[in-house]
Amino acid sequence: MSGWFAHIFDQNGPIPFCTDRFRQFLDVCWPHMDFFTLSTYAGMYDDSCPLKDALWPWFASVVTTDAWFGYGPGSYSHRVYRYHAAEGAKETLLSAWNADSWFEDLCLFSGGKLFFGSISHEHEFFLWPLDADMRRFIEAENWGVCQRLDKWSRHDLSEYDWGNPGGPIHVGTSVQAAVLQCLFVEELSAFYTQLLGWTAAEQDGKRAVIEPPDTGVRLIIEYADDYIPPMYPSMPGKQQMMLCLEFGVQRDCFHETIGEAVVLGAEIVDEREGETTLLDPAGHPFKICISEQHP
Question: Model pTM?
Fold first, then answer.
């Protein structure tokens, strides 16, 4: 038994991804997998949802394309998120999936090549069985031979540019500032101005702009009444790190700078050769590194 097989569920029935039978199917597939993908409409500015947040620890990359991995060429662009097929990712996928998720079209890959595709809103599933266990599964579920797909429908992940989800960056675009949220703007502003020796160009109870002595990226501190400090190192189900600042220093003042940061209220969370990660007083991670630009 080789080639593609298809199974179409009753669209008025339960979501197949939430059934015990689908868990059994993933148990059969998972040992073969290296990646899986989920997609969402590319025109959506914010595609965050509980499933996407829960899968963050296994996130690998994202691409924007009009190719539907589980179906064929599409009529509009969508973002495809790629994840490492770790055991924890499977359990998270099964437990966090629900009808309110923006994420659809689960696809499974072995050796970077597609062997299972789905179209969620149509409840359509396609499988290229890789072993006897998969073949026994589709026989028990009465999957039918799929004439529409062929061996060329086994999309290869290497055919896509996973480096830039938003398309090419225009020449002349530059990063002007990094933004940190917190509950106490003045205190956090004081921490960074003293640690870095920068100037607070603007400051009030809601916002502070800290500028370096020469040209470069500014640091903006903003008040957020719903701010939750990130968990470092990351943990599933906890607030994730969105940004990590990295400051380069000369080798001969590396340890002195770390000591000053601790005195000002930072906490050391990781130490490596030439690089130390700390948490600022609001819980944001930042690194002090020996800069390669200095001897």
Answer: 0.55
